[in-house]
Amino acid sequence: MKKLVTVLLAAVLLLSLAGCGGSGNGGNEQAGDGALHVGMICESLGTQSFNDDVLAGLQRAQEELGIALDYIEVSEISDAANSLRTLIAQGCTFMVVPSASYRDAMVEVATEYTDVKFLYLAAAEEGYDNIMSVEYRENEGAFLGGALAAMMSKTGKIGAVLAVQEPLQVRFQYGFTAGAYTVDPDCQVTTMFTNSYSDTNLGKEMASALYSQGADYVSCFAGACNLGVFNAASEAGDGCYCLGAATGQFDQNPDKIIASVVKPIDEAIFNVLDAYLKDGTFVGGTASVWGLAENGVTLRFTTMNDELLASIPDEVMDKIEELKQQIIDGTIQVPGTQEEFETYKASVQ
Q1: Is the pTM of this model over 0.85?
Q2: DSSP3 helix / strand / coil % (the chain, rounded to 5)
């Protein structure tokens, strides 16, 4: 009787977890027997954020490589570990974890299930053979965005709306500031943190404050908060523009988003799974670092407004390309912390 009760409780827990925060199924009926079964947990979908780009790469792999796919939206961090266990119980043997919020849960479950592979996309994680991690040089892409904004600014004031003060956001902050400072040492750069990846209203409030203080170009790197920045740009009126993120987000405000600092993670995800399926390539225990040279980050110009694109002078485009090449060849070492920025600033002066 005790065994029966235990089994029933486990079944109830499994069913409840499958719905925590919302869930989605990638269409496993399309995958053949023996297909690689991939699972993902994420905070939210449908906002054209990093999570959506990760899912796009997985769905491409589902279509072209024949993987099976399941994913769960997890609104409460405390549910993350059991959500991962749920996906494993459903047959997932390759897990994708996009957010640093789930780091502790991932390590806990990876230690329990050493035969399951984990791809961690938020930061370097070393010492676990079944965890392959990726760290981005967000600062390199942000550097180009800051340089563009500073060169395009008519007021000499620009800004950025960021999410929380975690390493990837801080890298963006100082990369963006360094890029602006490199092309215009007198440019005033203000960055604000929403302390949220999902509060659209906060994104709008902070961007509106930046515009009211004289900034005419505002960048963003704050998940769904970006949508608020785009709304603020419209309300700020003529002469005020913004930079997007994710895969571009140009359709969210074609008249205002002149360029975007992007991580082409959909392509990277597909390539990782393709290599794993072909020859078992999985670099566990160490972190890969993706920057401009690896096409892990880049600056993408608007694809939806020819007039806005044409407003960028040729000399500005040429300068952006020059800076990009200098970063790739190592001539410019882009700072990613306050200490590195102060050292970089001193070297430029």
Answers
A1: no
A2: 50, 20, 35
> What amino acid is encoded at 13 in this protein?
L
The domains spanning 2-122 and 138-262+297-348 adopt the same CATH topology = yes
| Residue 277 burial class via C-beta count within 10 angstroms: exposed 0-12, middle 13-18, buried 19 and up | middle
Tens of pLDDT, residue by residue, the chain (349 residues): 443 433 333 333 333 333 333 444 444 434 455 799 999 999 878 776 788 889 999 999 999 999 999 999 998 889 999 999 999 999 999 999 998 889 999 999 999 999 999 999 988 899 999 999 988 899 999 999 999 999 999 999 999 999 998 888 999 999 999 999 999 999 999 999 999 988 999 999 999 999 999 999 999 999 889 999 999 999 999 999 999 998 899 999 999 999 999 988 888 899 899 999 999 999 999 888 889 998 889 999 999 999 999 999 999 999 999 999 999 999 999 999 999 999 999 888 7
Q: Which CATH superfamily is domain 138-262+297-348 in?
A: Response regulator (3.40.50.2300)
